[in-house]
Design goal:
Rossmann fold; three-stranded antiparallel β-sheet; alpha/beta; about 425 residues; flat; six-stranded mixed β-sheet
Length: about 425
């Protein structure tokens, strides 16, 4: 039997970095309703047609494929059949969607033939709705990791700087030379320096005695108080954080999507805590007409909700969550772009004022801020707007709770949040 070998030309998908493609599709995968801000909670952004168009854009303008591969795919326009080219491109995109499903980045219906027929125009009509896809937990976890890596890179961090070990840390990281122990220092002993001091002290004592009075050599090292050496380092306090996200409709209005970047920052913060501060706690509260806590795993799937901004109810829920946490530090990170415009009354009804900064609403909201301060909870506010009245309100909140107010944009929000979180995590101790 004879075998004929041919040159291996490979597959176009072999040159595609699927992780890089998923990162390019993050705006679609974390969509918050920006494409149809007045259409309610629809799923138009999660259709396979939307995914198809986003992949097409990423292939030609996102840099996920080398130029040589794109030229190989398109061929020579002068002698190419446009219909054949379109068919080849559709087949490639379909293979990418199927591979995303196989590797667990999205979940799709088991049979995609209906979507192929709909796109070909053979199954159009009101009885044939677009086929949907779902974003998986693996994708959300990966997008959080990529967001954290990109944000730390922009802060000058080349890597996470912490590697997993089999030992448990005490929360103190050495940063300098050991020093003699003094009353009040944390007793984080440097064993080697302490034993070295004890040996040197005993040798000096033996030399000071007359030869006839020198004690016999002993294998024991007797450590005294004056030999103690402690390590200087940074104490990393445990922290409980509630991330309050404003999901009122203003977060996707006025020509700018502010909620999707906020979700991306929340995912990055979750990754930071999981990788570098595993003893910390992070909870997420959405506030709009009212407020609710959501599981962190569902954060990437939430959309902008009802229209008003019930800041007081969000703070109240966050305070109740933090009161159950026994940590060194408790804080609220509030991301908002709107003035308080709603209030939950004792009978459960919601009082609303679309213009915002109603004196009654502001007074009740500030009272809740004072309650947070009384409970020892810090509130740091990250503003995505610069409206004069909103700036005044946020500064008043910062004064009451001794917190900070950051005036930022969706593009710099992540840097501000991560820098603020890491700066408060450490303090020098002796």
């Amino acid at each position: 039997m004879k075998y004929r070998y041919t040159k291996f030309t490979g597959d176009l998908l072999d040159e595609l970095d699927l992780e890089d493609l998923v990162a390019k599709l993050s705006d679609l995968l974390l969509a918050s309703g920006f494409s149809n801000p007045y259409g309610g909670m629809n799923d138009e952004e999660r259709t396979l047609q939307a995914l198809h168009d986003a992949i097409l854009e990423a292939l030609f303008n996102g840099g996920v494929l080398p130029d040589e591969t794109i030229q190989k795919l398109l061929g020579d326009p002068a002698d190419g059949d446009q219909e054949q080219l379109r068919s080849k491109l559709e087949e490639l995109i379909q293979q990418i969607i199927e591979r995303m499903g196989e590797q667990g980045y999205i979940s799709t219906p088991p049979d995609l033939e209906a979507e192929r027929e709909r796109r070909a125009g053979r199954a159009s009509g009101p009885n044939q709705p677009p086929v949907q896809f779902e974003v998986t937990d693996k994708t959300l976890d990966f997008l959080g990791y990529r967001a954290l890596r990109d944000l730390l890179g922009s802060l000058g961090k080349s890597s996470f700087g912490r590697h997993d070990t089999r030992e448990q840390a005490t929360g103190v990281e050495t940063t300098g030379a050991p020093k003699p122990y003094e009353f009040g220092d944390t007793l984080n002993l440097d064993a080697a320096a302490t034993l070295l001091n004890a040996v040197a002290r005993e040798a000096r004592e033996r030399e000071a005695l007359a030869p006839s009075l020198q004690p016999p050599a002993s294998r024991r090292i007797r450590v005294s108080h004056e030999d103690l050496m402690v390590v200087q380092g940074e104490y990393q306090s445990s922290c409980a954080t509630v991330l309050m996200l404003d999901c009122s409709h203003s977060m996707i209005l006025y020509g700018e999507d502010r909620f999707t970047p906020a979700k991306r920052v929340a995912l990055a913060l979750a990754q930071l805590i999981k990788n570098q501060y595993p003893g910390d706690a992070l909870k997420v509260v959405l506030f709009h007409d009212s407020a609710e806590e959501i599981p962190l795993a569902e954060l990437g799937r939430v959309r902008v909700g009802p229209y008003y901004t019930n800041t007081r109810e969000g703070l109240r829920l966050a305070r109740r969550i933090l009161d159950r946490q026994h940590k060194d530090m408790r804080q609220i990170i509030m991301i908002t772009d709107g003035k308080p415009s709603a209030l939950t009354q004792p009978d459960g009804r919601i009082y609303k004022n679309a213009f915002g900064l109603d004196p009654f609403i502001v007074a009740e909201t500030c009272a809740e801020v004072a309650a947070c301060r009384k409970s020892g909870i810090m509130i740091n506010t990250f503003m995505l707007a610069r409206d004069y009245d909103l700036v005044s309100f946020v500064r008043r909140v910062a004064e009451i709770c001794k917190g900070k107010a950051y005036f930022t944009t969706p593009y710099t929000l992540g840097q501000y949040v991560l820098m603020d979180y890491m700066d408060k995590k450490t303090k020098t101790i002796h």
